[in-house]
Amino acid sequence: MHGRIPVLFIFLHGVQLLLSAPVQNSTESGAPWFCRDLECPAYVVVKSYENFEERRYEASRWMTTELEGSYTRAVYLGFMRLFWYINGNNAVGEKIPMTTPVITRVAPTTDGKHLTNVSVAFFVSPQVADPPKPNDESIHLSSFSAGNFYVRSFGGFALEQDYIKNIKALVEDLKVAGLPFDDQHYIIAGYDPPFRFINRHNEVWLSSA
Questions:
Q1: Dihedral over Cα of 171, 106, 9, 101: its sign
Q2: Over 60: is that where the pLDDT of 17 sits?
Q3: Which of 119, 174, 186, 192 could form a disulfide with 105 if both were Cys (CB 3.0 to 4.6 A apart)?
Q4: Cα 163 from Cα 154, distance rounded (Å)
Q5: Residue 141 burial (CB < 10 Å; 0-12/13-18/19+)?
Q6: CA separation (Å) from 74 to 105, 116, 160?
Q7: Band of the pLDDT at 83, cuts 50, 70, 90?
Q8: How confident is the prediction for the chain on average, in pLDDT?
C-alpha cells in the first residue's frame, strides 16, 4: 500500500501540464462533467460572469482534518489521513467510495505569497447516513450550511502558486464587480486522480459575504 504514496503525491503536487481537449458540460446523471463518475456536492449556478461564476451549494457534510506547516506537506498528509479512513481505517473497517472534490480550506500568509492554516476534507455522500467513526482522532465530521460561493476554474496539475495566482485573480474580479466576499479564508477544490493528464479541473472558491 505504501507504494501508492508517490502517485498520490503527484496528484496533489505534480508539474503543470498544458494539455487540453474538448470536454462535455455534464455527465449522464446531470452532475457537472468534472465530477466524472464520482459523487459531488449539489449546486446550482446563480450567475455566470466572464471569469467566474456564483454557485449556490446545498448543505453538505465533509470528513475533515486540520494540519499545520507548509501548504504542500500539510495537504499531502491531510489527504493521506482521509485516504486511509475511506480505505478502512475506521471503527467498522468499512471501505467508503471516493467522492469529489477534495477541498482544502486555507488562509493567506501576511505577505500573500503562501497558504497556511490548512484543513483538508472529503465530501460525504448523502447516501451515507451515518459515516463510520474514524480511528484517527485528528479526523472529524464537519457540516457545511447551504451557501453561495464565487468560483474560478482552471486546468492542469496545480501547485500552491497556481492556486494563489487564481485566488488573486478571483479577488480582483470580485472587487471590480463590487461583490462582497469573505477574504479571511479560501477554499481550493481538486477533482482529478494522478493518472488523468488531460481535461484536469481545479477550482478556487470564495464565500459570498
A1: negative
A2: no
A3: 119
A4: 9
A5: middle
A6: 11, 9, 12
A7: very high
A8: 87
Q: What is the pLDDT of residues 50-73, one digit of tens each?
A: 999 999 999 999 999 999 889 999
Locate cell 471516493: which residue?
98
User: What gap in Å lies between CA 141 and CA 67, rounded to an integer?
Assistant: 15
120/77 Cα distance (integer angstroms): 9
For the record, the C-alpha cell of 51 comes out as 471569469
pTM, rounded to two decimals: 0.85
What are the E-state strand segments in the chain? Answer: 43-48, 53-57, 60-67, 102-108, 115-124, 139-144, 147-154, 186-190, 202-207
pLDDT attached to residue 193? 85
Gyration radius of the chain over CA positions: 17
Is 107's pLDDT higher than 50? yes
Q: Say if residues 66 and 142 touch (Cβ distance below 8 Å).
A: no
